[in-house]
Automatic annotation (TrEMBL):
Protein name: Glycosyl transferase
Domain of life: Bacteria
Keyword Nucleotidyltransferase: no
Record Pfam families: Glyco_transf_9
CDD domains per UniProt: GT9_LPS_heptosyltransferase
Taxon lineage: Bacteria, Pseudomonadati, Bacteroidota, Chitinophagia, Chitinophagales
InterPro entries for the chain: Glyco_trans_9, LPS_LOS_Heptosyltrfase
Any one biological process term the GO annotation gives: lipopolysaccharide core region biosynthetic process
One GO MF term attached to the UniProt entry: ADP-heptose-lipopolysaccharide heptosyltransferase activity
GO CC field: cytosol
Amino acid sequence: MPDFFFSGYNNIFRFLLLMIRDISVILRKIQRAKADRRLAALFLDWKRSLEKLPVPRRKDGAKRLLLIRLDDIGDYLLFRNFLPAYKQSAAWSQYEITFLGNGVVKPLFDMLDQSFADNAIWVDKKHYFNNADYRNELWQQLRNGQFDVVINPSRTRPLLLDDICMLAAGAPDSRAAGNTFKNPYINSLSDQCYKQLFKNDPVLHEFDFNKAFVKWSTGIEWNICRPEIKRTGSGPLIETPYILLCIGAAHKSRRWPVSQWVRFVQFIQQNSLPKAVIAGSTADAALAADIEKMTGAINITGKTTLTEVIGWMENADAAVCNDSMAAHLAISCNTPVIIVSGGNNYPRFTTYEEAGIKNAKTVYAKPFLKKWKANKQQPFWHYTPVTRDLSTVSAEEVFAALHKLLKHQPVEGPSS
């Protein structure tokens, strides 16, 4: 058949793929608008319920500060280096500090940070949203804490979690940053709950935002330029050098396809680079098993605790990660890292190079790069990637980025 036939067919196919992506984005926006309406109604309902909680009478003259940080592990890694500032601050050094945190970060907190708070309360977020009795008990515990001040350092605060817990504490003074959801009405509902608000600079990387917020809330300028975890002292967990491949991510749209991971491992194996070690949570076990089966790579997925993963990361020659907590862990361990990203919240979480961290490189999906170029390479928030976007990031691109980061000479790709 003539070439123009195939050319026309390919153009139609590409057009259909773009149409499917656009429809997916539109549907997400519609679903988000509906979810925001439900969220606002439920928030106001829970807020009215909190008004009925009794306020206990003070029995002592102790001053009490509640720090709320209920987001996930990656966010905590970008915040935790600033936790000591509250103990050291002249403003808060006389306060008894209670840390209210997401239960999934407890092993990390216990290992690295528990000396920076007097008490800790841990929240199981699944139980919180699904069990009214659990939720009410937590609210009453916070009300009984008799806190004078609540500070919420999170840049984006879920109203039903962070803000409701702040209101449950019933402290006369409350401080946070202006919330950052796309819907201004949701942000307004959230922000009006606080007595003092820190102005949010949208251009700052998340770590730099945390640095600015802690200066505002403690008066201390914390002079560190990157998240840091002091070496745990664990020796190499295998005898041979290795590259840690962190295949997991909280959302499907942030997961690089298995086919690309397989091809990437083949690049590593055929060019005598350090061995590939696949890592992830139990939720990633099936994907990891597929990669292991097709490549023979070492697979520790679902077999390590959070604290053990730190040892694996700090002893790795390099890491390749999705846009997930593993990327922030690599930065914290000063391990060279390649981040594969669809562009979600990119100014906040993946612009490590722009923030001056040289042993990190982000490889972005092509739909995001197209949008970024159309925006004249200026930062923008609330970009909506879809699952298919990461299939536009090739194993060749990621391997080339890793190769450059590790300063190897050019090498051949895997055979087909």
